[in-house]
Amino acid sequence: MTEARLKVFGWGREGEALSTEEEEFYLGMFRRRLGVEQFESVAVPGLDRISLRAPRLTPPAALTRFCSTETYDRAAHSFGKSYPDMVRGMLGDYASAPDVVAYPRDEAEVAAVLDWAGGSQASVTPFGGGSSVVGGVEPVADGARYKAAVTLDLRHLDRVLEVDSASRAARIQAGVFGPALEAQLKPHGLTLRHFPQSFEYSTLGGWIATRSGGHFATLYTHIDDLVESLRVVTPAGTVETRRLPGSGAGPSPDRMFIGSEGTLGVITEAWMRLQDRPRFRAGASVRFGDFLAAARAVRAISQAGLYPANCRILDPNEAANTGAGDGSAAIMVLAFESADHPLEAWMARALECCTDHGGTPENAEKPDAHLQGAAGIWRNAFIRMPYAREKMVPRAIISDTFETAITWDKFEAFHAAVTRATEDAIRGATGRAGQVTCRFTHAYPDGPAPYFSFHALGRHGALLEQWQAIKKAAGDALIAAGGTITHHHAVGRDHRPWYDRQRPHLFATALRAAKQALDPRAVLNPGVLIDP
Q1: Sequence-separated (6 or more) residues with CB below 8 Å from residue 195
Q2: Model confidence at 366, in pLDDT bands (50, 70, 90)?
Q3: Which residue, 327, 465, 452, is CA-closest to 399?
Q4: Domain boundaries, the chain
Q5: Digit-coded pLDDT (tens) for 411-435
Q6: pTM (whole model) above 0.90
Q7: Cβ atoms 414, 482 nearer than 8 A
Q8: CATH: 3.40.50.1370, 3.40.50.2300, 3.30.70.3450, 3.40.50.150. Which one for 280-386?
């Protein structure tokens, strides 16, 4: 059976959507939170109503067999899944659509596209699953540097090429989507164990290029820690780093490409560190009367060296918005897993940390507690949440997120300042109150990763300006309070202003020099990370 296509507008594949019950849950929540009974809704244009400019270049005969200028391919590669992307898609604004979409089947074809684009003064934007929520995959053709735009979709580079069971590692092509990757590793009893929220619709190469963070709260959750070596095709040639468990031989070449967001080269394959599939699990949910008390419990757990797979806290409103709570308490979702040993001792000590800070455990005795109660409800909501946006944007609901990181000594003041600034910005931009919630995604011994969500009732015709005003105020506040924006949401164009303010000037100079060496004609779209 042929797999359904990815949607042009919205999350997932064609035919996938929220159920009627899920949609009504979210609409009910927004009615209560935003104080409105009826939403003004607009119709989203279908593919047959999308108008694109004529392609500004044509691929040569040698490349036509894996290139497309069809409307679906161009429209589906115009945007990622950020709030501004969704608004423009709702309005039928596909002015940024690439002129050509290339689907290379091997490295030679990747190199051929880069060479052709360089000679044609066209930008090239590498594309995995298109799940970027920070403006990371939008093509650029500004008429000055670039006369046209090409998107390079790596979906055909989708195989696990080699498995080294002794070292627990595998050589994997960069275009493989999360589920297909895990399916190929399962017969070996191994897992990459990297599960970002976008897992089903994102690729290994995308995870590496954006410094992805997985679902797990501690230890080996960031893609940085899982990369053993890389193969990268650049306009100046192919880079292959050495496969080693560690090295002290100067700056790491892998680190230069991890997080480079496609500006320095096209990641085509990687040796990745794997783990045995877990056999032991323990889980619980814990209620706290106060979010800051829950945060102190997270700090105690993270500094005890217990390394839970999940140690996520939801403030009372965040818990209520996902159905995991009733709004009267903060909720901690706590879980451990191992391929080697039972976990009762680890769970018992973590629960002691929680009770020390006023937490009340629930479901701790059940072997599948991580799938039951508040923990199970939140897990399901977390996976289904991206489908909600395509239903909310046409109703003028502004709902977005930003992830941060801050040290423990500054967290409480940081949380208060960012929440206040975002709430004030919502009132200023929309003329009415909205809502700001917070949860933790990762817990480190030296600080948490607070993930903020904001919800507001916008106005059709002004959604992008209203969103921008809110996001700018939030970003400015969190930088002023000593934190960082993005954490593992990548940079993209949406977060570029705050990234520029955080990176040292001399590092920016060095990064531009690396770009010049690897991509002397600036073929690869530099707008995400590197100044023109």
Answers
A1: 178, 214, 215, 216
A2: low
A3: 452
A4: 160-276, 280-386, 396-494
A5: 999 999 999 999 999 999 999 999 9
A6: yes
A7: yes
A8: 3.30.70.3450
